[in-house]
Amino acid sequence: MKPKNQSKIKARREFIKKASLASGAMVLPSLGTSAMANVFNEKKLKIALVGCGGRGTGAANQALEADNHVELVAMADLFEDQLNSSYGHLYEKYKDTEKMQVKQEHKFIGFDGYKKAIDLADVVILATPPGFRPYHFAYAIENDKHVFMEKPVATDVPGIRKVLEAAKLADQKRLNVVVGLQRHYQENYIKTHELIKSGSLGKIVAGQVYWNSEGVWVRPRKSGQSELEYQMRNWYYFNWICGDHILEQHIHNIDVANWFIGEYPLSAQGMGGRMVRTGPDHGEIFDHHFVEFTYPSGAVISSQCRHQPNTMYKVGEAFQLTNGTVVTNDAGAAKIYDLSGKEMESISNPKGHNPYQEEHNRLFASIREKGAINDAENGAKSTMSAILGRMATYSGKVIRWEEAMNSNLQLMPEALTWDSPTPTKPDHEGKYPIPIPGKAIIL
């Protein structure tokens, strides 16, 4: 940094030392369960888990760890084997406590099971595939429940509008809503955000965000499965229920850009396709996307996500500001550089800090203190940002936020039964329609 900025640097360092961990939705100090038992009332909070896969099971475990006076009372999933597996893992850990209180009659299987589980709870964990999220969230808020819900919060624009409507209702009812964009609860990101807000590094003018990896699981078709069950089991590869990996996974990095800039994209343009994952078990989604997001302030963020084996792995973000550069990732320290490229500061997470756990610590602390965390609007708008990027790569066109938000293209049905047709249908060879830039219908 130039000499004239040294006073700003010193002031910023003092600011960071004193900065609260609170940022955005984070309005309460971090408290362990023993402290919470002493500070908060001892009313038992009843928890329902909707969506019993690996992420749902993990979130339920974190909720049970967040507060001494909670109990899991209901579980819901489409598949009995998945619910039983989740129950087994949680029971094994909590069988010697009073936290596992799920009666056999409170294990709900089927498309309407979520309502029965939610009705029994004070706090609801929503961890199904994201296509279901708008309907589950709206039902929970209408019935006065506090919510933890995983990202993304929808797969189409009608779903986004439904979440935004329910978010307003949650505000009116002073219900707590935490969304699983856990970097908002991770200390190196929180402190970096506070640094950017302080103005000492100037204004973000450009950035790069990445989720480049080998990809995720594939669940091949099994004999006897209906088309609907197959797509539900292999949900990651179908847009009506997943939204493509730019949405399901890369939302984390796009959300960081939105958060640090303090805006949502004005427009997007980009390209993408399928080069490696081309088989029918990979459904209809792309295996790579590149998007340029333009923000109202003029900042341009380049976005990369890729699911291709034997390629560069990179998950993180970099931002160029008028007085320096910030580099962040969820696995290590945030790095601050001056304009010459010299490292000025490294912002690490404290030992043992777990943002996944911190989300639940904050949620239950806020409930006990009659607070009102509400991440839902940001969750919806960051989800919409990723949908905007998907629209751009599928179409090959410049897509503006305003026109995208007016879309009535509904990917996710409002109601399903096991007799329902699938929104995406294979051809006579078992292949699924792939979006073609210049031809794809995206609005």
UniProtKB/TrEMBL annotation:
It holds the Pfam family GFO_IDH_MocA. GO terms for molecular function: nucleotide binding. Residues 191-306 form the GFO/IDH/MocA-like oxidoreductase domain. SUPFAM superfamilies: Glyceraldehyde-3-phosphate dehydrogenase-like, C-terminal domain, NAD(P)-binding Rossmann-fold domains. Residues 45-171 form the Gfo/Idh/MocA-like oxidoreductase N-terminal domain. This is Predicted dehydrogenase. It comes from Flagellimonas taeanensis.
